[in-house]
Automatic annotation (TrEMBL):
PROSITE patterns: START (PS50848). This is Carotenoid-binding protein. Pfam families: START. GO terms for biological process: vesicle tethering to endoplasmic reticulum. The lineage of its organism: Eukaryota, Metazoa, Ecdysozoa, Arthropoda, Hexapoda. InterPro entries: STARD3 (IPR051869), START-like_dom_sf (IPR023393), START_lipid-bd_dom (IPR002913). Residues 90-293 form the START domain. It comes from Bombyx mori. GO terms for cellular component: endoplasmic reticulum membrane; endoplasmic reticulum-endosome membrane contact site; late endosome membrane; lysosomal membrane.
Amino acid sequence: MADSTSKSAPKINEETAERQLNELINVDSHDEYENRLSRISSALANWMKSVFNMDTTTKEEFDPVWLSIDEYKSQANESMANAWRIITLPNWTVEKRGTVRGDVVESRKVEGFGKVYRFTGVVNCPARFLYEEFKNNLTKLPEWNPTILKCEIIKEIGDGVDLSYQVTAGGGRGIITPRDFVILRRTALLSREGRVVDDNPHGYISSGVSVQVPGYPPLKEMVRGHNKVGCWYLQPRTVQTPGGKIEDQALFQWLMCCDLKGKIPQFVLDVAFATVMLDYIVHVRKFVAEAKARAEI
């Protein structure tokens, strides 16, 4: 979605805009890019918004049908298997480190999906607590996490499988506007090898992939994003405090591979994805701290 600008807003031609954009992109670090982004002219900012948020979806061709329960389950299981396989791959490249020790956003290319991003960090709560919060209270996420503006369950398909509609906040200091998604989700307990188990899991997963469903067409005022593959993956950890107490922690990983539509340069996407992932974990930790204060953990 291209933001409307006032008639008095400064104009810039495409050649000049692309030259200035190249100067903006050719920097050595994420921090330098973010500093330059805060100083760009309003004319370049308006041009970037119009190009980066150009909806390429052909809304007139929207004509999905409901699939069978078995078809949705099969698609959800395939997406979950892809997400677990990718998030456990070796040889990732660091994109950006967070301010908390151990927080890191990495990336790598994966055949069939392109560039994927992975966040890794530790949260001081049992992995099961976060998993059940994500699984059972998905619609409450916008109440404590401002990176998600809206979330509603469209349909319960079966145990651990559902369809949801989500709207994510924009990024890049307003250059990238909010996106909406229709997601087929799969939640499960997994063994070390990635098999679904009933108890004693090695990890907990909540995966998602974009789908089309009747009644949720792309909106004129919103750019419909496409989630190729993604998940939250939580692994239980125990640590001993200096006082000798044993505490439960969660190794929290987030896999993301999204097509945000629009002509967004890769470096802009790198910064946007790294920033939203590092922002997200701040809200997760704040939510956990408040839950502990209420004695819910």
